[in-house]
Amino acid sequence: DIFINFVNELRQSKNLEQIPLDGKNLRNCFGNEAKSALHSITIQSKMRGVILIQHKSPRWRNEQQGVLEILQTLKLRRAIVSVYACNTQKKVVEQLKDKQADYVVALNNNHAMFCKEIAAYFHKMERENPQVIDYYDNINTGRQYKKLPVDEWLSEPMRWEGIQTVLCAESLQALRQNRKLDSKLDCYISSLNTALPQLAESIREHLSLKKRKVHWMLDVVYRDVRGLSSKDNGEKKLTSLRYYALNLARLHPAQLSLRMKLKTAACSDAFREELLFGVGE
After folding, report:
1. What are phi and psi of 33, to 5 degrees?
2. pTM for this structure?
């Protein structure tokens, strides 16, 4: 509770902070006493690069319930929360708006009709009124983003609280080859009507949480896929300690990779003390 209060006070001094939210299934982390692998929900702060909350979910199918519980613990006013996969639910969006937060939500296979409606909406506007479409090409990710304000022509957005814009993203390579829009088009909705590069950054930051910043570190550096001890709730305790170690390594000013910082801390008492207690002046 003390750490959560500290994080909330720190975040209140900033505006429009980006907070990606995602779940991770730790494979093979169960033994004779566990019936299913540990599934954890992670919320990270882009501003500090540290993990705000790590919450245990009963099973990945019940992740939405864990997300609703975790959102109650944070003050999210004026934050931008990005949500993907099974958490793309109207209940999650409603709770974010109740917490006075904004959202960028990816539509998945469960919203196929909504995605088709968005694709048709962009096709209609490109033909009839192309100047109202915002375009943004991100060379680093190789994707083109497009944004349109929500219009009465769309029927599904009326069910999503606070929605203001719809977005779609497509591969720049596909555009160069003159491919038509198809089912592989990625669609997003947002409660923000802000500049498109900021929305694209929220999308990119969420993907980096999964691929590089947190989940990749757990898989490659800590090798979570090889399994954890489930005795006495061991998988939950070890995962929490690893998240804390990642936070400490990110905050250390040394110009080293996170993996090298953790290895150095294992071999050097002095460096380990700097991680735990900070660098002296």
Report:
1. -90, -10
2. 0.69
Residue entry with tokens 């490109």:
126
Reduce the DSSP state of residue 86 to 3 states and report it. helix
Strand partners, 83: 21, 105
CA dist 51 → 107, 232, 270 (Å): 25, 24, 25
The answer to whether residues 82 and 21 touch, using CB atoms and an 8 Å cutoff, is yes
For residue 141, give both structure tokens.
Answer: 């990710």
Calpha distance 167→125 (Å, rounded): 13
Place of tokens 């083109």: 144
| Contact predicate 51/246, CB 8 Å | yes
Per-residue pLDDT of the chain (281 residues; tens, 9 = 90+): 455 554 555 445 445 567 777 666 555 555 444 455 555 666 666 655 666 666 666 555 566 777 777 788 777 887 888 887 777 888 889 988 998 888 998 888 788 889 889 989 999 998 888 888 888 888 777 888 999 999 888 888 888 999 999 999 888 776 666 655 444 678 999 998 888 888 888 888 766 665 555 555 666 556 654 555 556 666 667 767 777 787 788 778 888 887 788 888 888 888 888 888 877 65
Burial of 182 (0-12, 13-18, 19+ CB in 10 A): exposed
Domains of the chain and any CATH numbers = 2-274 (3.90.350)
- The torsion angles phi and psi of 82, rounded to 5 degrees, stand at -100, 135
